[in-house]
Amino acid sequence: MVGIDQVLEKLSTVIDPDLKKDIVSMGMIKDLELNEGNLKFTLELTTPACPFNVEIEDDVRKAIAEISELKNFDMNVTAKVMEGRSLDDDVGMATVKNIIGVASGKGGVGKSTVSLNLALALSQAGAKVGLLDADIYGPSIPLMLGMKDGFMEVEENKLQPAESNGLKVVSFGFFAEQSHQAAIYRGPIISGILKQFLVDTNWSDLDYLIVDLPPGTGDIPLTLAQTIPITGILVVTTPQDVASNVAVKAIGMFEKLNVPILGVVENMSHFICSNCDEKHYIFGDGGAKKISEEFKMPFLGEIPLNSGIMAGSDLGKPIMIASPDSPSAIAFRTSAKNIAAQCSILAAKLQYETESEKTNEESISETNS
Description:
globular; 3-stranded mixed β-sheet; Rossmann fold; 40% helix; 12 helices
């Protein structure tokens, strides 16, 4: 008769392609029950947006099928996003598992559009997602979500995020639209506003908080990097040399601050002809890939140029909502999965380092005693 050890041995042959570890040692098998040849367990994936979820499920079914003694097999598939940053070091935002800053070296590369649609893609995959519009001088997220009349309430000294399409949203634009005034503040005040948006907001339990940073290497990116532990930075660029060259400066800043770089996404990468389906590289080809190769960082996706993206943003109807089956939406979905995978990889590394530290501390304690 088949035993639990035999089942676990078979399941340990299934390797997570991102984490390069077997699903048993990663603790992805939960509530395993085996009773007279009837097997039941839960497969808990590391994120609902993992690009290899279907592949892992198929590999598990194939591994179990090799156990001829089993009569019945029942697998429940769930996902629990891993913590990609040290929550113990961030009491103020201890319920947010991953904080992803979206940065660019210059304006005009569509960074806010990428931030919004990636947040929507992660949410549509089943993750709990927040979106922080950190561009105090030029907030655009409320307009792009059709929330020009949106507002945030304050309860028990905490900002309550506005909600739209499954996202929890915070933006200075909610205040600016109501006052119809420009934000004319010096750097320290701007940094203070960002800190309030981060730690004085009731984000509740989030798998991912996407922070849409203003372009460049100024006060806001510095404040984010120095105020709280973050999972990593996503760099957005376009194919042109002028954009990719400036993006390199943003990468350099975050590397000096010891902030992980998740990878690079190329926006306005190419135009797909509606008549022939051919790709036309209007602004050049391969700018982001060159950055990826030069800095040995993941190339996470390329978003095609699409007039529908611009029109949808102006009308408050993002492409992920207005046209979810379009090539652009599919590209955003692919990029979101790749970003989620990078967060899981960093989370696994953090978990390993934490466990190693605990082991070393226990060894030192035993030696001293």
